[in-house]
């Protein structure tokens, strides 16, 4: 049995969840773990001097639990409830390969996760487009006025810069303004190449 762990990280509202779900439907033995499922309750998330809840930092997440969940999945993917449908023709010899897509906004800045990735993708958006998309979403708790400019965007830039400065980190940056079809086609082909390497 072989396991492929794919990271799908990047900017808020960049299309990570949509892309992950579409890939799951196209790939054999594929499962998703979402970082959003590991947020601490609001009462445990720090508030800064401006009254902003600091959600866009690693401390707002139960990262140890997330790492444990990924390791548990890797130990026995078949028992995780992965639907083992008849894979598409491209994947005929891949019945014993399991794929985990981990999607979230802060995947590559946490050292214990960095040993796990087979491929890392990072969705980017320009400021205006990101702000526009974010304004159409409803969050619990809701974004307070100034929150995007005061916390969300600066944290995105901070963590993205950390990645870009880390020369050992192989990350494939994706333009989140491209159509979903284009992004899906690119990432899907790339993962199939990776699967074929595993098969050799």
Automatic annotation (TrEMBL):
Reaction it catalyzes: beta-nicotinamide D-riboside + ATP = beta-nicotinamide D-ribonucleotide + ADP + H(+); beta-D-ribosylnicotinate + ATP = nicotinate beta-D-ribonucleotide + ADP + H(+)
Keyword Heme attributed: no
Gene Ontology CC entries for this record: cytosol
Gene Ontology terms describing biological process: NAD+ metabolic process; pyridine nucleotide biosynthetic process
GO MF term list: ATP binding; metal ion binding; nicotinate riboside kinase activity; ribosylnicotinamide kinase activity
Keywords (A to Z) from UniProt: ATP-binding, Kinase, Magnesium, Metal-binding, Nucleotide-binding, Pyridine nucleotide biosynthesis, Transferase
Pathway assigned to this chain's UniProt record: Cofactor biosynthesis; NAD(+) biosynthesis
The keyword Nucleotide-binding appears for this protein: yes
PANTHER family assigned to the protein according to its UniProt record, in alphabetical order: URIDINE KINASE
Entry similarity comment: Belongs to the uridine kinase family. NRK subfamily.
Protein name as catalogued: NRK1 kinase
Phylogenetic lineage: Eukaryota, Metazoa, Chordata, Craniata, Vertebrata
């Amino acid at each position: 049995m072989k396991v492929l762990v794919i990271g799908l990280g990047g900017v808020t509202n960049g299309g990570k969840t949509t892309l992950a779900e579409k890939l799951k439907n196209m790939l054999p033995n594929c499962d998703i773990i979402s970082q959003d499922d590991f947020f601490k309750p609001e009462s445990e998330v720090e508030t800064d001097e401006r009254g902003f809840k600091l959600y866009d930092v690693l401390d707002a997440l139960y990262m140890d639990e997330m790492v444990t969940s990924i390791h548990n999945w890797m130990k026995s993917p078949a028992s995780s409830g992965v639907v083992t449908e008849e894979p598409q023709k491209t994947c005929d010899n891949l019945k014993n390969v399991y794929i985990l897509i981990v999607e979230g906004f802060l995947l590559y800045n946490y050292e214990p996760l960095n040993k796990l990735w087979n491929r890392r993708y990072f969705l980017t958006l320009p400021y205006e487009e990101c702000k526009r998309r974010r304004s159409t979403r409803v969050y619990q708790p809701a974004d307070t006025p100034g929150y995007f400019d005061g916390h969300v965007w600066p944290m995105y830039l901070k963590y993205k810069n950390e990645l870009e400065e880390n020369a050992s980190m192989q990350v494939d940056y994706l333009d989140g303004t491209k159509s979903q079809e284009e992004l899906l086609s690119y990432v899907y082909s790339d993962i199939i190449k990776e699967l074929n390497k595993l098969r050799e």
